[in-house]
Specification:
By secondary structure, this protein is an alpha+beta fold. The protein is 39% helix and 16% strand. Helix 10 runs antiparallel to helix 11 and helix 10 runs parallel beside helix 12.
């Protein structure tokens, strides 16, 4: 376990347990603030702005903490307003810092809360989400799946009513001609990259068109009397991208949060309900802040947010709710200051460090 290079002045349970939206399977996430040893900062040792003790426990050095607060970071600002039953540790330095917390509630929250909410929508909508691969079953493909025959070359268009231009998948080409890849060889076409001539050698057994491990195509020499039956392009880049995505998917499949996935699977909408919960929560909290109601961490709308997570709302309904709240947040006239100035933060930081 990583050691904190200084004094922890605050520690609290955050996330769903702080919001009141936790379920039986929710993790216990902890965030804290520490003051790094002044000897480390002034001396040879490296300044450490953030320490991740584990995937569920993170600490921020006081300088980094104040920097994020100035930017209106939602996940950091809420530490100032942690519910009492979630607070695990407080020291005198934190109590001194609390007297300044309202000065960090500025108009910066408008853009930061909207930005974080928009990122949750992108995540929830399945942009790049691995679980959406489940719908089509992410199948491991092989190099031959990325090989295409160029139409108009050699025998491939004879008596098959194929166009004279374009390409056809190599596997389809072989099937149309009743040719087995075990009786074929590739030979590299001169002065070209990833373009090959395909030879059919029915009178002898070849090593086939793929390597034994199936990760690359095989190139063999042809006999002088052999004639190529087609010209083939191997899309190496597309094959590499597929292999990368398949590895990522396989890793995700092993490590995914099963309960979170079950929720998605049950409501049948290709979104992550937890992301949409946080989207609506962030927008509502941002609106409350701009209206002068402060930062309300323990959510009075927790049951509604849980219904969103569990898919009891239609996706279009949630997105409409998010769009409406976002527009309201953008248009609120607020009396909050635009931001807290650097000089003020510097004074606070020096006071805490000393």
């Amino acid at each position: 376990m990583k050691q904190i290079p200084g004094k922890i002045i605050f520690k609290a349970i955050v996330g769903s347990q702080a919001y009141g939206t936790n379920t039986e399977t929710s993790d216990t996430d902890i965030k804290g603030v520490y003051v790094q040893n002044i000897e480390d900062i002034l001396g040879f040792h490296k300044y450490q702005p953030q320490i991740e003790v584990s995937k569920d426990e993170t600490y921020f050095e006081i300088g980094r903490f104040l920097e994020l607060c100035q930017k209106g970071n939602p996940n950091i600002l809420e530490l100032f307003y942690s519910p009492k039953d979630c607070i695990l540790q407080t020291e005198s330095e934190w109590m001194d810092l609390l007297q300044y917390r309202e000065q960090f509630v500025t108009e910066e929250c408008r853009n930061s809360f909207i930005g974080y909410a928009e990122s949750q929508i992108k995540k929830a909508s399945g942009i790049g989400k691995k679980f959406n691969y489940e719908a089509t079953k992410m199948i491991r493909q092989e190099p031959l799946d990325f090989c295409h025959v160029i139409l108009g070359t050699f025998i491939e268009s004879k008596n098959l009513n194929l166009p004279k231009q374009g390409t056809i998948k190599l596997k389809d080409f072989l099937q149309r001609h009743n040719v087995h890849q075990e009786n074929c060889i590739f030979n590299k076409l001169d002065h070209s990259q990833d373009v090959y001539q395909l030879y059919h050698c029915p009178d002898r057994i070849t090593r086939g068109l793929q390597s034994e491990n199936g990760n690359s195509i095989r190139i063999d020499s042809s006999d002088p009397d052999d004639s190529p039956i087609a010209t083939v392009i191997f899309n190496v880049n597309a094959y590499s991208i597929h292999c990368k995505k398949y590895r990522e998917y396989s890793d995700w499949l092993k490590n995914r949060n099963t309960q979170r996935y079950v929720d998605i699977n049950e409501h049948g909408q290709k979104i992550d309900g937890k992301n949409m919960l946080h989207c609506i929560r962030l927008l509502r909290m941002g609106k409350e802040i701009l209206e002068g109601k402060g930062i309300i961490v323990r959510r009075p709308d927790a049951l509604e947010l849980l219904d969103i997570r569990k898919g009891r709302y239609d996706l279009k309904e949630i997105l409409k709710m998010a769009k409406t709240t976002m527009e309201e947040l953008r248009n609120i006239n607020t009396k909050l200051p635009s931001r807290i100035e650097n000089n003020m933060i510097n004074e606070i930081l020096l006071k805490i460090r000393k």
